[in-house]
Specification:
Order of helices and strands of chain A: HHHHHHHHH
Oligomer: homodimer
Shape of chain A: elongated
Helix content of chain A: over 70%
Number of strands of chain A: 0
Distance between the termini of chain A: 43 Å
Radius of gyration of chain A: 18 Å
Largest sheet of chain A: none
Strand content of chain A: under 5%
Chain lengths: ~180, ~180
DNA sequence: GTCTATAGGTGGATAGAC
DNA sequence: GTCTATCCACCTATAGAC
């Protein structure tokens, strides 16, 4: 982890929020600079090309997300509690009307470098691996873990369309109940 | 169904493909006109504003999709066959590297009119209602239909990221097997 | 209905002063 | 590091000739 200036950190933070809400083609350096009270050229000082910013935003996002997953595992709670914590990671984005960064980037492949698309895939793989491990400890087949992840991803998208968080909650509460009842 | 000129029909067809692959902010009238061998101004003759084109693309897409769902129902095949036909409707997009139009539009809410966002929601509702009816006829609770739809939506997104159609097939084949085995 | 021409705006990006 | 100034490409959209 290299240390960052406050300015750089703020740019990444705003960049993350903008990409999550509007996608890479829906935000501009102008918007970030306005929000920060600096000029566009200053953003270019830290991230010469837009793809540089996107790549860094994704890097930080993936690191943070992986850390969150590790933290859940480290708490050593039971299957149900761990899964709820996982769901909560996705719910948080929806509370501000956004979806997961990588869900958004997955829809914008054509506008991204090969390296970025690769990292998006790794994010999905990381999620899947984590879930598979959790499910296997519970004696559940890995297919159920894959299924669970796809359901969360889809529920996110459908929830975003309506803005109805109770749909998201209900769907995943029910799914969790079915998994633990057997 | 109003009758359309061939030009108008072609614009809608290309518009649909472009939005599905790049989103509303990722395509331009210039691209459509180039692809058709006409001028930008001609597109504006049919669809003065970009939102007009998007709205029409969505209208036609939803009509066609609904017709496909009705056709599946009308064939009167069993639960498993009907569900496979449903999955196939989503798989078709992935074969050309695209996702469902409404999945894409759901991520671009901020750039769309209220009416368009409403239609996207209706598309999801239409899918859910159709699935619920199918599931209920099979004696399955409606929660399983909601779950199924979210899974398809999510699997689509994850598949788009990797381009690996066999992931999509495997995931949904397994899910279908679990549903019919009980 | 399709065209040329153009307006008016915003995008990403860079050079060079401070 | 941050700024002003600017470039050029592209966007949506419109006016008006044919």
């Amino acid at each position: 982890m290299k240390k960052m200036s406050e300015t750089e950190e703020k740019i990444i933070q705003l960049g993350t929020a903008f990409i999550q809400s509007r996608g890479v083609n829906g935000f501009s350096y102008a918007e970030i600079s306005t929000a920060m009270g600096i000029r566009k050229a200053s953003i270019h000082y830290y991230f010469p090309k837009k793809q540089d910013l996107i790549a860094r935003v994704l890097e930080v996002y993936n690191q943070d997300f992986k850390a969150s997953l590790d933290a859940i595992r480290a708490r050593g709670e039971d299957f149900s509690q761990s899964l709820e914590a996982f769901i909560q990671l996705y719910r948080r984005n929806l509370e501000s009307g956004n979806i997961c960064l990588c869900s958004m980037l997955a829809t914008e492949q054509y506008a991204l470098t090969e390296a970025i698309n690769q990292s998006v895939q790794e994010f999905f793989q990381c999620n899947t691996d984590w879930l598979k491990s959790l499910f296997e400890d519970e004696g559940l087949v890995s297919q159920l873990a894959e299924d669970f992840f796809a359901t969360v991803q889809g529920a996110q998208l459908i929830t975003k369309a309506s803005g109805d968080l109770s749909y998201f909650d209900q769907l995943l509460t029910d799914k969790l109940a079915r998994l633990t009842k057997k």
